[in-house]
Specification:
This protein is mainly α. The chain is built from three helices and no strands.
Length: 116
């Protein structure tokens, strides 16, 4: 901001200094208005992003709940199959052995392909 008392002493009249002050105030008001608009846009963008993230998290929560239901149902069926009788235990051992072999084959293939 300029020192208007010096300018007044240099021959500017009271009316001219008031005009200069008015123009300067108008310019500062416009600058402040632009900055406020930018802040409002940023706040609106932040609100929109927060709402999107909340919707995403809500969807994730429901996905986890449905996965939990699916896994608990599977575990109940496996427990029922294990407890049914001796022949089911033998089948269960074969299934576990098969899964372990598949795991090692996939592990071998992944390490072999990433090593190349």
């Amino acid at each position: 901001m300029a020192d208007w008392t010096r300018r007044n002493g240099n021959g500017l009249g009271k009316g001219q200094s008031e005009e200069i002050l008015d123009r300067e105030n108008q310019q500062m008001t416009e600058n402040l208005s632009r900055k406020m608009n930018r802040l409002k846009n940023v706040a609106f963008d932040m609100q929109t992003e927060a709402e999107d993230q909340n919707r995403y998290l809500d969807g994730m929560g429901s996905d986890f709940e449905s996965s939990q239901g699916l896994l608990s149902g599977s575990m109940n069926r496996i427990n029922h199959m294990i407890g049914a009788n001796k022949s089911n235990r033998k089948i269960m051992c074969y299934i576990v052995l098969f899964l372990v072999i598949i795991f090692f084959v996939v592990y071998f293939l992944v390490t072999r392909s990433s090593g190349s």
